[in-house]
């Protein structure tokens, strides 16, 4: 392939292909144990995000319910019992406030989980490089390199993802068009998830972090498509959080190999 400049449609098509292949690849090469490694982190983080979203959602709904126009609306529903009115108000506000908050938490989840499981993903990246790229890599745990990766890539990406999600969160409350902002939030979080995966492969190719960042920023469609599959998988409650990080690393490696990213990088 002479160029890795991809349209988002083409990148999405390749993403579907390689995520499908990733499940077969993981089973074939005995990599399912990595699912077990990520499960503890996934369960703990999912629980924390769930309860945080539940608290924030209920607090926001209670605050809005106490506003004057809500009280006036309740007074206009005199034909119904107070319990029925409260139930109608709560579930209406839950649809327009609670659900967007939970969806935002779900979108942020894979990026935060990816940051927490960097050491696990790092060893899996080594396996993919050894199996598919026939690249000799050092299996020893390199704490200094991982700290550098956390500081330069993982933590900044997680914070940016969380910041953008919080900025977009109020816009998702807007009826109908709020769906558009949810999609934008998913796209942004997918980009940062894919960013971390691609950068880790570049780390093993001895590419400077700053050069890696510039390359990934020039190929946002590739990074987004790599992360999108993981982001969608992570939306499956609990199970998705367990399989998403591992499948994303493998799918990302397969996609980068298919596109001959390493050689293309050296030619740019």
TrEMBL record:
It is a multi-pass membrane protein. InterPro entries: CysZ/EI24, Spore_wall_assembly. Its main location: membrane. It is found in: Membrane. Pfam families: EI24. It comes from the Bacteria. The chain crosses the membrane at residues 34-57, 88-113, 162-188, 232-255. Keywords: Membrane, Transmembrane, Transmembrane helix. The keyword Transport does not apply. This is EI24 domain-containing protein. It comes from Flammeovirga pacifica.
């Amino acid at each position: 392939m002479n160029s890795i400049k991809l349209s988002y449609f083409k990148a999405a098509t390749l993403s579907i292909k390689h995520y499908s292949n990733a499940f077969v690849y993981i089973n074939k090469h005995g990599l399912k144990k990595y699912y077990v490694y990520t499960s503890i982190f996934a369960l703990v983080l999912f629980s924390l995000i769930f309860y945080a979203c539940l608290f924030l959602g209920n607090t926001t709904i209670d605050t809005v319910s106490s506003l004057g126009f809500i009280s006036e609306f309740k007074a206009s529903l005199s034909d119904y019992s107070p319990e029925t009115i409260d139930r109608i108000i709560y579930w209406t506000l839950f649809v327009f406030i609670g659900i967007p908050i939970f969806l935002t938490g779900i979108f942020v989840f894979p990026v935060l989980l990816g940051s927490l499981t960097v050491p696990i993903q790092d060893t899996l990246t080594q396996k993919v490089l050894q199996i598919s790229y026939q690249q000799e890599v050092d299996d020893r745990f390199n704490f200094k390199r991982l700290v550098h990766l956390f500081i330069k890539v993982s933590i900044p990406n997680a914070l940016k993802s969380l910041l953008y999600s919080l900025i977009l969160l109020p816009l998702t409350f807007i009826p109908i068009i709020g769906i558009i902002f949810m999609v934008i939030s998913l796209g942004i979080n997918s980009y940062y998830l894919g960013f971390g995966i691609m950068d880790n492969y570049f780390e093993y190719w001895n590419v400077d972090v700053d050069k890696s960042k510039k390359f990934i920023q020039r190929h946002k469609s590739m990074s987004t498509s790599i992360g999108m599959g993981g982001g969608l998988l992570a939306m499956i409650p609990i199970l998705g959080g367990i399989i998403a990080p591992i499948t994303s690393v493998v799918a990302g490696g397969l996609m980068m190999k298919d596109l001959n990213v390493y050689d293309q990088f050296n030619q740019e």
